[in-house]
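Student: Send me a single protein entry containing the residue sequence and its fold in token form, directly below this note:

Tutor:
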Amino acid sequence: WYKLTGVEYPGECTNDTFVKKCHSMRLSCYAGIDWGWSSPCTVVYFFVDKKDNIYVVRADGMTYVSEPEWIHYIKKRYHNKYRCQLYFPDIASMGPVTEMKKAGLPTATDIDKDINTGIQVIKKLLRVPGSTDTRIHVAKDTCGPLIEEFLTYHFKTAADGTITEVPESEYDHW
């Protein structure tokens, strides 16, 4: 397991073993989805415990795949494995969201579209108040693209060198 601080957790727990443990503890599973074409369509599955710790167990993505193909892939490959209770898709375009519902995937539609809202949620999870601990834990072996994106995601820099409040969109898929 990989803490977003870059420190690895000790232990030999495989991803499948950990997912089974999450199910046995009746932890809720959710997933975020982003749509793409030349940039990847992505999905990130995570479990949440009673202390609001987030355990990210899978980050997957594909380029040059249609939205219906991506939805079919998710449903066939991961939906039953993770027993996802609710998907949070990018709602910039409602067409794929409608396709998800037609496919029988539980899908949230009342989502704040503002990217800065999502950034603030993640920032709060990155630090436990009064501690250097994080609430987000990522499975190193199945979430490489997500870890890489956390390491490269940043805000744009203005011409004068100051950092703006506008996120750079190059690394925002996972």
The chain is about 30% helix and 25% strand.
